Amino acid sequence: MTRPPENRFHPRQLIRRVVGIWGTTGSGKTQCARALSRDFRRRMIFDPAIDLTAGEPGSGADVHCIAKDRMGVLDYLDGIKAGDGFSIAYQPEEPEADLDDDRKVVERFEAEELNFLAKCAIELQDCAVIVDEAADPCSRSVVGHETLALGKRGRHQKIHLVLISQRPTDIDTRLRGLAYADEVYLFRLGRRADLDDLAKERGGRVAELVGKLPDLQAVRVRNVSGGVELRRIKIEFKGNTPVIVEQGLIPAEEG
């Protein structure tokens, strides 16, 4: 097994609890999530579509173990001690789905498997759970109790939940609201429902700006002690590795 990442504590972990990364296909949200994942020295990545952890070495979200079932997750985590760094991707094999009814079966399956991972995180504490295509396992009709608990308990147990989605309005409002209360990376959104919801949360000017963003650029909305900070960011690459580059603050009149 590859050696786990070294023990280090990134200061940005102190201010995160629930983070949202919203954006349409090709906008840059996956690259942002890959870059962001490296901030967390103890991380679990829920990646049933095998998208976030795919690619050449350095281009994906680096992991030291890939588990295909619950036993694989438990076997790996059993060797993790308090303070150890670790990185695992959980890629449960989904049942096939062709019709709408079958898709609901997949959503329930993903919700159950994410709920299992959430239980593991609550037991371990001091870690991040990163969820790709979060609209499926985190929709209101299927989201699990322990998954919801990550958002509620996270600040006290140093647990961080990162939700990635091209359909943010399909995520349970309790989780989506927590993300808007903490930190959201807004890449280009195309669905009217998502833009309307963003306008309610952060104002029509922000929604208009996000609807026109080019690829690999975003608006980061972060709640800080003095209020809400809006900043432009972009994704650049060092070799194959994506990195988040902060740009200028967005004035209040623009946001």
Characterise the protein shown here.
- This protein is about 35% helix and about 25% strand.
- With about 260 residues, the protein is an alpha/beta fold.
- It has a single domain (about 10-250), classed as P-loop containing nucleotide triphosphate hydrolases (Rossmann fold), CATH 3.40.50.300.
- Strands 3-4-2-5-6-1-7-8-9-10 form a ten-stranded mixed beta sheet.
- Strand 5 (about 125-130), helix 4 (about 145-155) and strand 6 (about 160-165) form a beta-alpha-beta unit.
- Helix 2 (about 70-80) packs parallel to helix 3 (about 100-125) and helix 3 runs parallel beside helix 4.
List keywords for this structure.
255 residues, alpha/beta, Rossmann fold, ten-stranded mixed β-sheet, 7 helices, globular
Quick synopsis:
With 255 residues, this protein is an alpha/beta fold. Helices cover 33% and strands 25% of the residues. The chain has one domain (11-249): Rossmann fold (3-Layer(aba) Sandwich), CATH 3.40.50.300.
What layout of secondary structure does this protein have?
Blueprint: E1 18-22, H1 29-37, E2 42-46, E3 65-67, H2 70-78, E4 86-90, H3 100-124, E5 127-131, H4 145-157, E6 159-165, H5 173-182, E7 183-186, H6 192-202, H7 204-211, E8 217-224, E9 227-238, E10 241-249
Parallel strand pairs: 1-6, 1-7, 2-4, 2-5, 3-4, 5-6
Antiparallel strand pairs: 7-8, 8-9, 9-10
| Terminal-residue CA separation | 47 Å
Parts with pLDDT < 50 across at least 5 consecutive residues: 1-15
**Helicity range:** 25-40%
Our estimate of the beta-strand percent is: 15-25%
Tally of helical runs: 7
In CATH, the homologous superfamily goes by the name: P-loop containing nucleotide triphosphate hydrolases
Mean pLDDT: 87
CA-based gyration radius = 17 Å
Q: What is the ordering of alpha helices and beta strands?
A: EHEEHEHEHEHEHHEEE
Shape: globular
